[in-house]
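Render this sequence as a predicted structure.
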Amino acid sequence: MPRNAVIGVDIGTSSSKGVLVGLDGTLIRSAVREHTPARPGPGRFEMDAAVWWREFTEIARELTAPGDATVIAVGVSGMGPCVLLTDEHDTPVRPAILYGVDTRSVRQIERIETRLGAGEIVRRGGSALTTQAAGPKIAWIAEEEPELYARARRLYMPSSWLVARLTGAYVLDHHSASQCTPLYDTHTCQWYAPWAAEVAPGIDLPPLRWSGEAAGTVTAEAARETGLPAGIPVTTGTIDAWAEALSVGAQHTGDLMLMYGTTMFLVHTVPEPLTSPSLWGTVGALPGTRNLAGGMATSGAVTNWLRDLFADGDHAGLTRLAAKSGPGANGLLMLPYFSGERTPVMDPDARGVIAGLTLSHTRGDLYRAALEATAFGVRHNIEVIEAAGGDIRRVVAVGGGTQGSLWTQIVSDVTGRPQELRTTTIGASYGGALLAAQLVGDASVDDWNPVRETVTPHAAHTARYDELYALYRRLYPATSDLVHTLAGMQER
């Protein structure tokens, strides 16, 4: 007899991932569909929403094809904050603009700050206005593509788009809304109508629910397309990093989640709202929770870039070479700002820098320098989080980059902090499955996903990394003027 199970699906930057999970947390099977965002110009990243739904339907059918499980609930998540505008019939007016990797909205940020006040935006919205925020991206469409914007009536993100296609419901979770700065008031946990009218005129913003609440049930039409049973509940969902945090139980006060993926994300849970001009203050995925968050524009994206440069390279082989390189990468130092940088630098015109290169350096040295660069970026973010009033008591790591031991070990060595690894580190799709299971039962993350190991810092590497970190912090201000000039040349 088929066992009852839940499905979790996450729409990520470079792939969509789905898991079929038993009600006890056992992973039955997983499925992946890889994709590549369109890059229609410098600093621009877009995706066609049709890709999200097509990949969801393919994943759902693949996961359920063997017929050994009966799906009784669905959980969704996705990258964000993204901006997908549709007309009143839910037909997209243009491809979705992605989160902070897309840096096109600089002029809109300046204009909105002038009109609303930079300090007031932080006070009400929790975060400074940056290219991560959804609000300026909406304003960019209104100003640069007015004929398309004239048709726009609704705002979606990847998770809410899946919800709409599955259930017909037009909703968004509170956390995703809180990254729509300046449209959302983090104190009242509601859309702020005066600023919404200013920044997103004519858009009927979606009703808000918490991530674990049911958005609706699978319609008969969606059931035909996906192979899922009609009538089963679907979660409201959330942004991928917050689903990742839920998947490893990192939602308690003092927790810091590190998400190792194409980008690096940090989510620190705090007891009361905190703000910083260099971080994002948001509401959490669960009712009553607050976060201070950071995100690096690239991390795994840099190692993927290096892998692709080396025709015969693969991550496992390059990791072995990097391990042989040793701490400090034989005198190489890298800034990982290959797509600009989000927190805490907040500079869309930042670029990658590799300092200290000689003819003696190897592929392993370069790969090691990339891993160390992301670790230095994590340390920088942690220092800013604590300077803003954060109190980090536990670090929990999740994501594809935790599969090998070297990257997590380097991060612990650089930051001086242990990292807890849970048994399952799949990430957001597993977190979505957990929320789905909680819709239909009393699933607990500690029962589903117990601690597997703790990565502890190597004291012998501390002095070396302290020295290199000091140089890392000097490298950006020393090169930023030159790099900004080069970034301008790239745009031309």
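Summary. The first strand starts at residue 3 and ends at 11. The chain has a mean pLDDT of 96.
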